[in-house]
Design brief:
Blueprint (H helix, E strand, L loop, with lengths): L16 H4 L2 H14 L9 H14 L9 H14 L4 H10 L2 H19 L14 H17 L10 H13 L8 H12 L4 H15 L10 H16 L6 H4 L5 H8 L5 E3 L1 E3 L5 E3 L6 E5 L2 E5 L14 E5 L2 E4 H8 L13 E2 L6 E2 H5 L3 E6 L6 H12 L1 H6 L2 E7 L3 H15 L7 E3 L4 H6 L2 E6 L8 E3 L1 E6 L5 E7 L7 H17 L1 E2 L10 E3 L5 H7 L6 E5 L2 E4 L8
Parallel strand pairs: 10-11, 11-12
Antiparallel strand pairs: 1-6, 2-3, 4-5, 6-7, 8-9, 10-15, 13-14, 15-16, 17-18, 18-20, 19-20
Length: 554
């Protein structure tokens, strides 16, 4: 998509008609929209009749035929919030599904969502000469409730009302002046419907939108999403994904469908060198059949799919995730005392199996956010500089980051050149985040930059592992704080001392300083155990000092 297609157009010019033209013309224009809402209907009843009465009453209130300046400003705030300066920012907002975004929408627009649901902004949908007001109203009725009331029935409460307004706008062709990015929201309101007629109307409107899209425009991804919704409604007559939220009982066929991962797909968006997205669709269009629906897909086949994974994953209606979200959601959790997981991985020194690497000694596994970064470079220099200290303690060290082995090789040259060391320990190449997810290393607060913008990276985790292949200590630093390697060595000394001599170490302990007796050891037993160290110095019943047992007896 060209950047100029995302720039905000001049909106005010089309509104001059409210004061320049007569009341009669305003009423005529509004009647045209209202009648479009009942066109082709033999009878109108129920909610539709209520809406029709409300719209007709509006014609008797001249002040409601005009959109107040404060409302115009509110509509612009809504559009500015959802239509960001770049498509990359838009997709991050739309598909991010973050609690922070949900809360922000509730704080900024919660009152407006309630007013829109009560029909107080319905006159926005009558502004034929400013269809962007309709888009703002659709966002209030269809999009924001999905953020504010996520995973509750209220997220769907205004869907029917919203669709009626959209279909009416399409009939009077008031949306033709909208940009493709704005028309997406009208199509989304239709594709959220569980009526097949609305799904087909969505595809008809979307076909018009696609005429204005370049082949690499990221908005092309909605082609596959919309077709998949048609396939689901054609087969089941409803979205099985909503059954749990709406308290509906799923059929056996629906249960099988929900458990079938083949319906999910990666949105084929790739980042260019400048950080912008491009739609990486198929070159050779092909017809596919999904459930009972046959259509031409734009997804690349196995031969065309680029190397690496895409950033967004579709799991069903109302469930599109970033790859980062999926990784953060699915990562494991390692605690002190857990058996350390075994795994195979590529490293800067070749492939290895982790338990074989640990062997019968102690091991320090530490992660870092990214290669070619300043803090990490100094940390790896410090680790290499302590080679003799690791060996003296019988400790193997191994690093990890979410970069490739090739990146590690190139970065190691920089480390050795700038830090004046020789890096003789392996660095795990965890580009697919498999090991990081196993240990729960991924950072939920900081993400990568540049061409990898938005991708997960690891925090500065340290796992000290004993010969029993058990996690004995965990230290975690944020990405922007370098580790204290003196403290890591001190912790290893304390762990090894405790393992050999059944003592604990007090605050700020250093080798050679007094230790303390463990609480579960009785006074009598302690005196016997530490007689060679000069016995026990008892300060309180629970606070008993003893000379460092590793020192020679004087």
């Amino acid at each position: 998509m060209r950047k100029d297609s995302l720039e905000m157009p001049q909106q005010r010019a089309g509104r001059a008609w409210r004061s320049a033209e007569g009341v009669g013309q305003r009423i005529q224009a509004c009647l045209q929209v209202i009648l479009a809402g009942v066109e082709g209907r033999e009878a109108v009843a129920g909610a539709e009749m209520d809406r029709l009465r409300s719209d007709l009453r509006m014609l008797l209130q001249l002040e409601r035929l005009q959109v107040a300046a404060a409302e115009e400003e509110k509509a612009e705030q809504i559009l500015k919030y959802m239509l960001r300066p770049s498509i990359e920012e838009c997709l991050k907002l739309w598909f991010g599904k973050s609690e922070q975004t949900d809360q922000e929408i509730g704080d900024l627009f919660g009152a407006d969502v309630a007013q829109a649901a009560n029909g107080q902004y319905d006159h926005w949908a009558l502004a034929v000469r400013d269809p962007r007001l309709l888009v703002a109203l659709v966002i209030l009725l269809d999009q924001f409730p999905r953020n504010m009331y996520r995973d509750t029935p209220r997220m769907y409460a205004a869907d029917e009302r919203c669709r009626a307004l959209v279909k009416r706008g399409l009939r009077v062709e008031m949306v033709e002046r909208l940009r493709p990015l704005e028309r997406v929201f009208l199509c989304l309101a239709l594709t959220h419907s569980e009526a097949l007629e609305d799904q087909h109307l969505c595809m008809t409107e979307w076909a018009r939108v696609m005429e204005a899209l370049a082949p690499d425009d990221p908005l092309n991804l909605f082609h596959e999403i919309f077709h998949r919704h048609v396939a689901v409604i054609s087969r089941f007559g409803r979205f099985p994904h909503r059954n749990k939220v709406l308290g509906r009982v799923s059929t056996a066929e629906e249960e099988d469908f929900l458990a079938n991962a083949s319906f999910r797909f990666d949105l084929p968006l790739l980042r260019r060198a400048d950080g912008s997205f491009a739609f990486a669709g198929t070159v050779k269009r092909r017809t596919v059949r999904l459930l009972d629906h046959e259509y031409q897909t734009l997804l690349p086949d196995a031969d065309e799919a680029p190397a690496g994974s895409f950033e967004y994953k579709y799991e069903g209606p109302d469930r599109i995730f970033t790859r980062a979200q999926e990784q953060l959601r699915d990562q494991g959790y390692i605690r002190i005392g857990d058996a350390v997981p075994d795994f195979e991985a590529e490293t800067s020194l070749g492939p290895l199996r982790f338990h074989d690497f640990v062997g019968k000694g102690w091991c320090v596994l530490f992660s870092h956010p990214a290669d070619f970064t300043p803090v990490c470079t100094t940390e790896f220099g410090a680790t290499a500089r302590l080679s003799a200290e690791w060996q003296r303690r019988g400790v193997k060290v191994i690093g990890l980051s979410v970069d490739s082995a090739e990146d590690h090789d190139r970065w190691i040259h920089d480390i050795e050149d700038t830090q004046h060391v020789s890096v003789d320990f392996p660095i795990i190449a965890d580009k697919d985040r498999r090991v990081a997810m196993l240990f729960g290393m991924l950072d939920a607060t900081n993400f990568r930059h540049g061409t990898a913008l938005g991708q997960t990276m690891t925090v500065r985790s340290v796992f000290i592992i004993s010969p029993a292949k058990r996690v004995e200590l965990i230290i975690t630093y944020p990405a922007y704080i370098g580790r204290n390697f003196d403290e890591i060595l001190r912790a290893i000394d304390a762990l090894q001392l405790s393992a050999r001599h059944r003592v604990a170490t007090p605050a700020n302990w250093r080798p050679g300083e007094d230790t303390v007796v463990l609480p579960f050891i009785s006074d009598e037993e302690a005196e016997r155990m530490f007689a060679a160290q000069g016995g026990v110095r008892k300060v309180r019943s629970y606070l008993r000092y003893v000379r460092d047992p590793s020192l020679r007896t004087v």
